[in-house]
Structure formats: C-alpha cells, structure tokens
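User: Assemble these into one structure.

Assistant: Restating your components, then the assembled model:
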Amino acid sequence: MTNLKSVSRSAVKATPPDAPRKKSTKRESMGSLAFSRRARGRALFKHLILIVSGAVMIYPLLWMVVSSVRPDELIFKDPGLWLNGLDMSNYSSGWSALTHPFGHYMLNSAIVVIGSILGNLISCSMAAYAFARLKFTASKLFFGIMLLTIMLPFHVVIVPQYVLFSQIGWVNTFWPLIVPKLLATDAFFVFLMVQFIRGIPKDLDEAARIDGAGHPRIFLRVILPLMVPALATTTIFTFIWTWNDFFGALIYLTDPDMFTVPVALRAFVDSQAGTSWGSLFAMSIVSLLPVFLIFLFGQRFLIKGIATTGIK
Amino acid sequence: MSALGELSKMKRRTTPKTAAEKKDEGRDNKAAYIFLLPWLIGLLFITVGPMLASLYLSFTDYNLLQSPNWIGLENFTRMLGDTRLHNSLGVTFTYVLVGVPIQLAVALLIALVLDKGIRGLPFYRSVFYLPSLLGGSVAIAILWKQIFGTTGLVNQVLAMVGIQGPGWISDPSTALGSIILLHVWTFGAPMIIFLAGLRQIPVMYYEAANVDGASAWQKFIKITIPLLSPIIFFNLVLQIIGAFQSFTQAFIVSGGSGGPSDSTMFFTLYLYQKGFGQFDMGYASAMAWVLLVIIGVFTAINFVASKYWVFYDD
C-alpha cells in the first residue's frame, strides 16, 4: 500500500507533459555536422515508426466512419477509405431501428451521466476536503480503506447491491446507477482531489480561519474555487465512464424504455444479427461522438488526470 | 495500517496540547465526519455491507425469490468439479498474462520513442491515446466484431495479398487473440503514465553516461529501466487488476455467450451468466470471492516481487 502510494505521489510531481525539456535544447546546441545528420536520421526513423503505428491504430476508426456513409454491402467488400459521395441512409435507418428513436437512449444516458457527474463532484470533493485538511480520529485508517476500495473488483458487491436495489424497487430506474456516485463510491476521484488539495498552500485556509471562516466556508470559498482543474478532470472522466458503462446498465435496465446507449446498441446487435452493419456502424459512431468531443476539448485534463492517478 | 495508526498516536502524545487546541481538535472531528458523511454511508451500504453480504451468500443457495439457504462449502466444492469454470479461469489468465505484458511493452516502447522531445508530440500522443478512451465501449466491441469477422476488414486486407484468413472470432483458436488485441490497442493510458515517469528522470544521469561512453542500450538498461521501475510496477498492478475484470468486449464480441465453444468465456462473463442469467446468486457470490482472492494474490505477488526489481530513489 505504502509503496503504491509513494509511486502515485511521485507521479504527481511529474512536470506537465507539455513542458519543454532541457534535454532537447541541449542536444541542438551540441556538436558536429556528422552528429546532427545522424540525429536527423534517427528523428526521421522515429517519425516513420510513429506514423506507421499511429496509422494502424486509427485506421479501423476511420474505416468505420467511412463505412457508415457508404452503401451497406460495401462493408464486406471495400477495405479502403475512398468515398463515392455521401450516403446518409444508414444514419436514418439506424436512428429508428429500435423501439424508440436513438435519441431517446441518448437522453437516458445523458440523465445518468449528469446525475453521476453531480454526485461525484459533490460527494468526492467533500470527502477529499476532510482527508486532505481535517484532523480526525482514525483518519489514516479511513484513508487506507478508501485507497483499498479503489482496487476492489465490483463483482464482490454486485450481487448484494442488486438484491438491495431490487428490494427497494429500483430495478429499471436510474437510481442504482446514480445513487452510488452521490455516496462517493468512485474513490479514484476522492484520491485525485486529495492529491490536488494537498498542493494548495495551507496559508490560504489559515487566513480564512483568522477572518472567522468555518470549515464549510473555507471549503466553499477557498478550496473549491482553487480545485477547479481537479473538478474538471473528475467531470470528464465521470462523463466518459458513465457514458460507456455497460455492466451496470445491463443488470439494472431491462426495460427498453430505460435503455442507455450501450445497452441499446447491444439490443441492436442482437436484433439485427449482423445483417445491417451499416446502420449499426452509424449508431456506434453516434454513440462515440460525445466521448470524442470531450476528448478534443478536454484532453489536457484527461492527460493530467491519468498522469496523476494512473486511471484510464 | 495499524503501524500508521500508532504513528499518529505517538505524534499526538509528544506535543502537549493547550485547552484551546483540544477544543479545536474536537471541532475538527465533528466537521470531518460531516464532510465524510456521504462517503461513510457509501462505504457502509454500497461497499462493506454488500461485501459481507456476498461473503454470506457464497455459503448459501439463493435464487432471489426464496430466502438464502445455508449450504456451507457446497458452492466451493461445486467449483472444483465445474469444468466450464476451470476453462473460464484459463481464458482469463491467458487474457491477463498475455494481454497486459504486451500492452505495457507497447506502451513503454511508444513512450520511449515519444520521449526525446520529438516534433509533433501532442499530435502523436492524441492519436495513441484516443483508442484507450473509446476501447471500453460497446461501439468499439461492435467494430471489433466486424473487423475480425469472416468477411471483416482484416480478411478483406488479407485477400488483397491473396491470403484467405480464418473467421477470427468464430474460430475458437483465434477468438481470444482478437480480444487480447483489443486490449493491446488501448495502450494509450499507460503510455501517458510512462511519459510522465520518463520526464522525471534527471537528464544529468544520461549526460554522465555519455561522458563515460555508454551505448544507448546500456543507458536504457542501467538508467531508464531502474528509474522507471516504480512507474512500471504501478502500471503493472493497476492493469492486472483491471484486466481481471474485463467484461464488455468479450460479452459483445461473443454475443453474450462466451463462444465459440467457450473460448472467450471470461470468468466475469461466466459469473454474469450464473448470477444474472440463471439467478444462481449464491454460486455467483462464491465466484466473486474467488475472483477477489485471485486478484489479491496476484497483487500480493506483485508487491513481493517488486522488492527484487523495483528501485526507489529515496
């Protein structure tokens, strides 16, 4: 435990990935023509490796996008990316292929996502404030337990949780997916926020305390505004994980009215039995679009969040 | 953990406190537990309570309709004779022991290539990172199902060079490999952690090695690997724990069956089928505890082994 803690803490100290390194400037100023020619050759070789491997990685995604705007049968014939005009029929047929229009499932997903984000932001930041700033009995014990729960496989709790929620009558509602987030069970984010709050100078709290502020006020007025980057990281990760969450939705949402996007897609796969791959691809892309947009605009927070805590 | 607790007690004893400070401490306690209230409720009702309940259920026969019936160790002895379960353990171990090392090796390799202040770093990083964000989704599993199908993208490309590829996911000998490949495809997240770790290695070590005329390979083995070993260890522990719990990809690619002929029947998938397909909740709980113990043992082995290869600078 302590080992792991010290590792992750040392990861925090890492310079942000975008920071320029001393090393490269050093190398440029160094030496002879022969050296620089060799360095250039090596750089070229590296770019070649990166371009080829990057292209292999991304090709399936590009091909899926292209295939979704081509006639259905080409999916099994054309491995290329060439387009002869745009055929949007896959999107219109995919959108209305299930009981409800696909937008219905996206709305369901959005409700779960928004509830989960709010839950995580409120509950995790509160717990993190207590762990990072307050002295209390058994704080180290609780902190240790919190770290352990990060690594706990959810399978050991899923059966009794299901029994509990089904007895309350919450099966086929969004509550089993949202309520745990309101109770800070995503301990990664507590840990992430604890690390962040520890980096905020304590003088600021002290100053506020001297001015007569209590803990609620220090938390709301001093700490929360300063931990916006950690809150942003939490928001983004919660969005992506909840949007993609399949297992929870599969267990708790069996009524097609309540389907979120992942279970709707699964129902689509089953009902089509592989006959209309075009519309299946089209809806897959629609389902990936929000995650892709988050990636485009929130990449900085994502990368910092990963480097800090080692989460996906 | 108890050592830590004692440590904090000792600290408290060494500094005598004034009455005002004691009062402060009491107030902190109250405030702390108020701030921790949601987390404590969650710990009790969502984590620890259900954990104990599932431990109890693992010794019972329970189908959700009738109340649990205590059967002692019967679920566990049943496991000893359950060949499908043995197979699912084999599938999961293969997935973890093949997928995780390859994924981390690729992540480290690309991180090393990216590390040396290469031009266009942010672009490359984004390209390699994107798949790890999307990889857990149903949509990508659907894509995989097509790509590795009989007339899928891979076989279309192979046909261009005159090779008739097998139906990768419909052939029991290659189905698991296709899913492992999907795991390797998501190497972006550990790569980012490696990049952050590489940046922490002081440049002066490399400069000193240059002065001594060390080769690139020597520098990699004698400087990079030891100084990066805590990060490698961290990635290894987290990725193994995560890989044991993989579910979505195998479920979608096999249509929920774990087929063909159980070749993609992950332990978690079998657990799902037992618990939520056949409502054999007692057996599923027992399986969950077996999974917990397996993950715990693997993590413990990792920590013990780390004493021999992980190097801590401080």
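The beta strands of chain B are 60-61, 69-70.
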